[in-house]
Structure prediction request, 678 residues.
Amino acid sequence: MIKSSCSYQEDKSECKKKYNVIFEKIRVKMISFNLFCLLISIVRVHGYYIIDPTESYGRRFDGIGGLSGGGATSRFLPNYLEPSRTQILDFLFKPGFGASLQILKVEIGGGGQSTEGTEHSHMYNETDENYARGYEWWLMQEAKKRNPNIQFYGLAWTFPGWIAENKQALTNKTASYIVKWLLGAKRVYDLDIDYVGIWNERDPPERNYIVTLHQQIVAAGLKTRIIASDAIRDWNICDYVANDTELAAAVYAVGSHYAHASSSPICSTLNKPIFSSEDFSQYYTSGRIWAETLNRNYALGNITGVVAWNLVAAYYDNLPFGGHGLFSASSPWSGSYDVSSVVWATAHTTQFTVIGWHYLRNQSGVGTYVTLMNGSDYTIVVEGFGGKNQVVNFHLAGTLTEIKYFHVFYSNFDGNNQTWFAYLGTMTPVQNQLTFQISGTEMYTLSTINGTKGDFGKPSERAPFPLPYTDNFDDAPLHSEAKYFTDQAGAFEIVENGAGKAMRQMMIQRPVSWCRALDEAPYPYSVIGDYNWTTVVVTIKVLFEYDSGIAMVAARVTNGGCAVAKNGSQGVVFALNNTHNQGTWILSNSTGLNHRFDSGSIMSPIVPNKWYELKLNVTNKEISASIDGTIVSHVPLFNSSNGWVAIGSSWNHVQFDYLTIGDSLDTKNDFEYIEYTQ
Prediction:
């Protein structure tokens, strides 16, 4: 069984040529294996390593996973149509197929921006509980369908504003909020959450909060265990746990982010699992970096559980950290996705292990190697990254001498000669030794267990966002986010109204932010479409539920993520301002409405619960803005950039419906002001 790593973009003839080249190289390597075994007595071995389970029993293996969160990173996955959606999920979670993830970590949404977008909250106020919001529930269900033994890990980045007490976010009220999320997962979806964290990348850890959270979890009859404290490259939690018996009882495992293959020596003395509970943050083609991270975290840092940020790059490429993830799935309208080297670097470990196995104590030397065992099953993962070309000899001792052969999988991450997860057949120990050659760009897995390189053939071709585009939101599930929208501040949710369904902005106060720059974010908004758009016409109907609020439609919106900051995003923004029923309109260069290029009053007062149609037309030369079909502003273009379409609001309940996006329409070139009348 030998499989090529032909790119999906290559035609069949070119792919076949590449396959033949790769096949020949792999055939030579297989011959080399046999030669090395036959000539072991005369070959000079550069690396000689003894693997003896009777003398080097190590720590428990706690798994490898991916993180869906840190800002709506999986946002587009529910929008993929079949069969692409199933294929993507299989590559992520199906055991023995692709990445074969053993842990799924998800964000506990708080209605706030946390890198790529907003994760919605299950409680927008103290009396509100709704477990249909967001897509993380769906994702966990899909993961469990494929791997019933997958472990779940929840962590909050933001919290709804009502949580805070005297500017303190971690209180008894917060603990209750988290426990309700855990209970909702169990009661509504039959999902047991194995682990829960404290607050993403906040340090120092709140000792009293951790103890309180543990007490509430126990009182609720849940078996969820606490990993603390999800700080970034900070292991101070180990010092606290070592000197506080009550805290030690509350904390099951210690975890830090981006460990860089090191942890505090004190952590290793605690008899607790050590997690790099967020790691990687690299482009989806960076398989070598990830493979190196997985090995070295244990070999050099005694880290037994690792979670990659992020699970899959299923968001707009031009948002922060575009393309970071295990692979890319940012084009749901076309069904296109791209499985690359990171998936197969993950598979080198996950397809040949199970949580609960044990590491042996062997460590560095090749680049690094780790050995994992469970009874009579053994897996050796070897990486030579950064080292010299060398001949490696593993001397097998103890029960390893009883193994007749090992399955061998091979990857080469050389940019000019890439091979991912190729099966080389089996390798038989000679005189209890395994001998082979490895370069500074290669890795091997040798295991008593066989693996599979899953393949669905060529995915759909990537295509631009489709125009014209329309959506009345009636086909969207209640409480979901509208298709292809990704919220950058605030939270926009599908709700019922008298005539069907609409988008509703749910946040009436600013959340407790993760991005501290967003503490003063002026207005919520959500983006859709193509970042490269320049000329576009967009129409949306808006409704104010109360006698105050702002509703916006925008084009050429350039910023998302934490870059929203207090001035919002640049763009061409048309806003209807309903301040105590005295309506005005604004044309601005930002979603913060900071710089007004044009503005005016509306003859008749704006009333709540009435639909108004806003239309914004942007050409290469001019801007036209209309209310209910009447032009209120027609001005020369003041913004020459490109960007998404967006809708937005104030921190009020504002509804949106009947969206249309199309190519821009030419307008009269007289810039005549026409006063709006109803």
Q: What stands out?
A: The mean pLDDT is 90. The radius of gyration is 28 Å. The chain has three domains: 20-58+363-447, 62-357, 469-662.
